[in-house]
Amino acid sequence: MPNERGVRMTDGRTTGSARAFELLEPLVQAATVRVHAPPGGYDNPRSHRTGPTWGSGFFIAPGWVLTCAHVVGEGGAAVRLTGREVGITFSAGSITGTVTGRVECVLPERLEERRPGRHALWDLPDLALIRVLAPVSHACVWLTDRSRPRFDEVAYFGCTEDLGTPEITGRTTRLRGTAGNGAAIRLGDDDEIEAGMSGGPVVDLVRGEVVGVLKARRQAGGGGLAVSVVQLRTLPMAARGQVGLYRRIMQAHDLYHYDQHLSDLDNRRTWTDVHGELPPEEGDPYAGRGRLTPGERTTLFGLLAELPPPGSSEVVRALVEEARGEEPDPLPPAPLSWRDGLGLLHDPPGGTAEAAAMLRYATDVSVAEYREPVTPGADEELWDWVRATAERLWRPLRRELGERHERGLAERERRRRASAGRSVHGPARRSGGLPPGASVLLEVWAHGWEDLYDWRVSVLAGPAHAGRVTPVDSGVRATLAGLPEALRAPLAEGFRRCDTHEAAALLEVAVAPALFGLAVDEWVVVGGVPLGVQRPVVLRHPAGANPAVANPGVANPGVANPGGAREHPADREGTDASARWARVQAGPLQDERADCIRGRPRSPATEWLTGLPDNTVPVHCRAADQEPTLGSLHAVRDAGYGVVVTRRPPPDPGASCAPFHRGLREELADAGRAEVLPVRLQNLRGRAYGADPDAYWAAGTGLVWEDPARPLPEEEPLQGDL
């Protein structure tokens, strides 16, 4: 009969969550560490000559400790966190060791510039990664692959001094919900969280996996917050052509447990062994053949870790959708590794067996295109394992997987022949053009007649799936000054989904022409570098915009189509817009001042605009929210121009615009064709950011880019309460 905590006693042995705690406690304690000042300089016998405890942490991969940023910031408010050395004390069997670690990075990055006051909550996700500076033998925890935790009973571990000396202890509670848009997990008040436990692991007792990092306790006592370990995916993205820190660490994590599972050098329990001994989950519809066994799951993770990482997050999501039979959970953070894709395949819809979905996914991964050459035989080894594992499942599934593998091999070979000498991650593009894949879309709308703005961040699937839009986040009633901070996290998530190892994704900013002066290219989201230096940034007219309203007397060239995306004027063959777009893309380019003559303002006549050659790029040098430039921007759109240049005027109103026009004319002549302009403008911004005086003229330059292959969603977001 169960007791008050739901623990059932059978033949004198504990079962349920109490049994799970007994099994998992030794594994978690072996991987949990005490964080303190670097060794040396202290002489305190009660603290083992390492000084007072700052907090806790835990090994997530060989040589890598995860903790909270506020733990490594203890006593160092004026010290830069990244690069700071700390002390790590851990246990290896019966031996206790202390080593020095260095803080590799903190999340969010802005903690380096803006720290909260003492005793105040640090900004989420409040994580820090520590690299151990000496090769040591230690245990590692098992991290969850799920994008969100299940609200079950958990245990949390950390450093306490209940008996006068530091030791790693554990206690149990339940998850009570989430906070911070899923970045944080609420813990119940079953037991008290002590200060030294901050940074310790939170373990799901049903599935035997670490789901969180202890962050804070309630001031009134009992309960608190933990940070979801999935927030590790928000680690800074790698430079083009490099493997990011997140993927490196997760690869090392999976290979560690794979090696432990295969090793027969000792008889100590591994995480895989304990997963097989955990009490079964009551009412599990996928029990038995419906799920992979713990050994099969560990092996699959290890085999996936042997492969090169995927080229982008969208590659993972596409394979998950194929295996799952529906679009995966769009909530952040985006899946970045092959293992993250497996985490989206738990509990598939329609009664589909989880094991079958994972084997379909693994089959597709075995024949996928990788971002770099695969280790000889690694993809074949993965397929051999899939085929062997399917032997214990259903005969029709074995046949389906075989046919799936054959189709995948044929498609991969076709792509290789078709893309010889070109990028393997999308259709060919001429040198210097935009990446052909998904882009990030930022839409900003004025909130009625107030100086407040609603916004939405989405992912546009790209020309291959024109009109397909995946929402990321949205908000209402932000000020212009507050937009950069409000959009920092949503834009970072969008970039994680769209960036590939070959190129940073395009950012498309759809706003009314009066907002074309919004300095989005100067915002800093990640990496400490302005957006316009990191990636191509272009302007778009908003979806559903009606120029006839903003510019009376002019017909609206945009027509809503049944698919929910606004038809671009260039979509209609035979129109001026269609001819202009095709002609200007091919070049050569001809610039024409639209809102000034020799520095004096002017309003362009409709007849003059429509009579210009199709390869003309209209140029604006004055403030977009003032006349005559505002009217000119509407007029050039109505005349069918899909490529237009704008500029935020310099602070000095007396500064001449001649250097800007002169530099732009040379740039257009050198570019030759419009298709390279977004990337060339990015390069110009990079030169100016790097203090190249020859590029200073380009400060504030914007590019209107109405690509008909990238239609925008038509629906505007709901406005907030009035």
Describe this structure in words.
The structure is a single chain. The chain is α+β, with helices and mostly antiparallel strands and 722 residues long. Helices cover 28% and strands 21% of the residues. The relative contact order is 0.07.
Tally of strands: 27
Q: Low-confidence spans: pLDDT under 50, at least 5 residues?
A: 1-12, 41-48, 421-429, 546-574, 718-722
Quaternary structure state of the chains depicted: single chain
Q: Give the neighbour order of strands across the main sheet.
A: 3-4-5-8-7-6
Give the fraction of residues assigned to helices.
Answer: 25-40%
Proportion of strand residues: 15-25%
Number of helices: 18
**What's the average pLDDT?**
85
Global shape: globular
Q: Sketch the major β-sheet.
A: 6 strands, antiparallel, barrel
Distance between the termini: 56 Å
Structural class: alpha+beta
Cα-atom radius of gyration = 29 Å
